[in-house]
Amino acid sequence: MSEIKQDMRDIASVVNQRLDVIMDEMCEPGILKDAMSYSLKAGGKRLRPVLCMLSAGMFGNRAQALDVACAIEMIHTYSLIHDDLPAMDNDVLRRGKPTNHVVFGEAFALLAGDGLLNCAFEVLLKLAQNSDRDKLDVVRAMQIVASASGVKGMIAGQAADLQFEGEDVDAQVLHYIHERKTAAMIKAAVCAGAALLRADEDEMKALNVYGENIGLVFQIVDDILDEEGDESKLGKSVGKDKDAEKMTFARVYGIDASRRIAKEKTDEAITALARFGTRADGLKALAQFMLDRDR
Description:
The chain is an all-alpha fold and about 300 residues long. Helices cover about 75% and strands about 0% of the residues. The protein has a two-stranded antiparallel ribbon with strand order 1-2. The chain is globular, with a radius of gyration of 18 Å.
């Protein structure tokens, strides 16, 4: 486990350095850049970039996926800024710091999120224009990211989460929400890195299974931590889902059953990687890390 933690730190460091360069290249100094940078630099494990680069590394040089990884992190950060707004989850704490709208106001929080989303796709388009690789490889990765972050993916999940807030939904609706709101972008991070390095159809199918399962594991563990996590470790408010009457795995299945489901899905994810042998050791270790995390 210590090896994957070090690998995560190493990748996060490279991603952070590249994000600084991207922000300086794309944004003029001022409050908009400050608001965008505030959330982008707020910390976090950079899980999605790590997944993207580990996946790419199974098929070649993972550094080639750096800009794709950064674009995914920018999209993820935009979604957090908007998710925290009073019109959505109305959260005041994120990664141990006041949320974006608390610091910069709602208008600039909206614009910061919009700016990060647009910058992400500008990064991907520039990669397609300037890459020495087959440009179709970049387009394939872009399509995966765009689909996962769009109206059939993350946005659809967020919409359903709001629509059914306070209602007593069944497991089917619960899975619909979180397969899109959370799991879609996690799966996209895995698959975009592989697509960029030209994984074949069967390899992509295996990675899809892996990504779908760990995406749900991430959400299940999040739901458990919201019920019984340590706020000082999490760096965000706990009990918010219960207070907002959101349907979570912990509420629908109970804590013990949720833990069992998370373990089963972790096992399924790791099994899906069998075809890759030791090349997938990093992704296997990361799946276990996600199951065992306490923050």
